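Anyone up for a design puzzle?
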């Protein structure tokens, strides 16, 4: 069963500080974007998570001076009283609202041991170099600055506790620059915290990494490093745990993750359509953006026109939960077979566009000649994600896109 425990969170001292301090995760932006986002905001956590913005222009983001600046800024945030620590271990509830839909997550500490023993289930591969990149800052600041995004199969008793907590006034409540709403509650009742921990331990057999596979793997490795380095290790240390927001699966919605290809692999547009007819019914959908409305239906934007592609029965393979995914069908019968793109992780001929950017971004890239053709996919479902994780399978690269992104800075977990 899942180990999820409360912790003494380090968090913004006031609502006003929270609104300025909270920021997007450090890995969804480049240095220039981070600089613009933090402009005029001395309290933005980007001064800690992207400290190169406070270093001379051109400084390598992985330079030791950047990490030293992160540590210095993090200490300054505490010294100025912008961040204060709760006196007792707490769970927290974090609500995000996007386009009228709200999802409620429980912020607590997951166990590094659960990642090692498979209680925390994953659906993507990770790379050691990317894990190391996520680990360096954690080593320097000795804290989980940013939570990972987990899911669990909904438990009515947990839902009831969350409903009771969120019936009260939140400690933080703001709308971010993207229009998404963020609210945050502290669960200070010892009995409620005890009950939540008990419910996870008795009613939640496993949790699922929804977003943040590399940060999860990095956190688990940090815990293992600390364990090996501590001859007095007894398992109770904070480094054995890392911060995650746990959302019930019934509230989560995955949005589309689309593809653009830079060339037609020597084919003319007419030849491409002819090749597609081998595995798809191809229909001209006109100039209005076509969004797939069901599984095995795709949109294609080519030469100023949208096409509707419907996979033929012979293109479908339901022998396992990965083969039936639309990203697998597209990769196998289009990207690999027609475009000769065999390695999605390394090919420079294909790019991935999160559905939050809209189908207009696909059109823009093709119309501007940044790409020659774009493919819109129907989103993967939470049921598919859970099925793949439960069966020990791995999704193809860039399959799931969760939105809204978790804001960093609402609460921080220190490792000591």
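Challenge accepted. My sequence:
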């Amino acid at each position: 069963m899942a180990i999820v425990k409360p912790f003494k969170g380090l968090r913004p001292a006031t609502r006003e500080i929270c609104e300025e301090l909270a920021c997007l995760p450090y890995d969804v932006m480049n240095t220039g974007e981070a600089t613009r986002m933090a402009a005029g905001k001395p309290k933005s956590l980007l001064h800690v998570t992207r400290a190169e913005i406070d270093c001379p222009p051109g400084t390598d983001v992985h330079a030791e001076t950047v990490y030293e600046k992160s540590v210095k800024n993090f200490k300054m945030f505490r010294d100025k009283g912008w961040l204060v620590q709760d006196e007792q271990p707490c769970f927290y509830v974090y609500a995000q609202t996007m386009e009228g839909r709200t999802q409620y997550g429980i912020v607590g500490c997951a166990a590094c041991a659960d990642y090692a023993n498979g209680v925390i289930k994953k659906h993507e591969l990770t790379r050691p170099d990317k894990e190391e990149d996520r680990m360096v800052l954690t080593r320097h600041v000795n804290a989980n600055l940013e939570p990972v995004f987990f899911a669990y199969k909904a438990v009515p008793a947990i839902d009831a506790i969350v409903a009771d907590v969120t019936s009260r006034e939140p400690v933080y409540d703001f709308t971010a620059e993207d229009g998404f709403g963020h609210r945050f509650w502290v669960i200070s009742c010892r009995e409620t915290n005890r009950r939540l921990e008990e419910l996870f331990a008795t009613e939640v057999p496993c949790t699922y990494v929804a977003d943040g596979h590399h940060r999860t793997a990095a956190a688990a490795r940090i815990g293992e490093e600390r364990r090996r380095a501590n001859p007095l290790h007894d398992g109770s240390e904070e480094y054995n745990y890392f911060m995650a927001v746990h959302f019930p699966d019934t509230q989560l919605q995955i949005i589309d993750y689309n593809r653009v290809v830079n060339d037609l692999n020597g084919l003319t547009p007419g030849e491409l359509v002819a090749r597609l007819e081998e595995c798809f019914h191809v229909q001209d959908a006109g100039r209005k953006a076509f969004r797939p409305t069901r599984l095995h239906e795709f949109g294609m934007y080519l030469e100023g026109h949208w096409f509707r592609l419907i996979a033929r029965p012979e293109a479908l393979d339901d022998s396992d939960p990965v083969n039936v995914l639309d990203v697998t069908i597209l990769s196998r019968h289009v990207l690999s077979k027609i475009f000769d793109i065999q390695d999605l992780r390394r090919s420079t001929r294909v790019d991935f566009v999160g559905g939050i950017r809209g189908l207009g971004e696909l059109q823009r890239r093709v119309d501007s000649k940044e790409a020659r053709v774009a493919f819109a996919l129907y989103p993967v479902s939470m049921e598919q994600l859970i099925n793949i994780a439960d069966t020990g399978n791995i999704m193809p690269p860039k399959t799931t896109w969760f939105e809204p992104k978790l804001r960093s800075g609402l609460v921080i977990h220190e490792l000591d």
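A detail worth pointing out: Residues 213-229 form the longest helix (17 residues).
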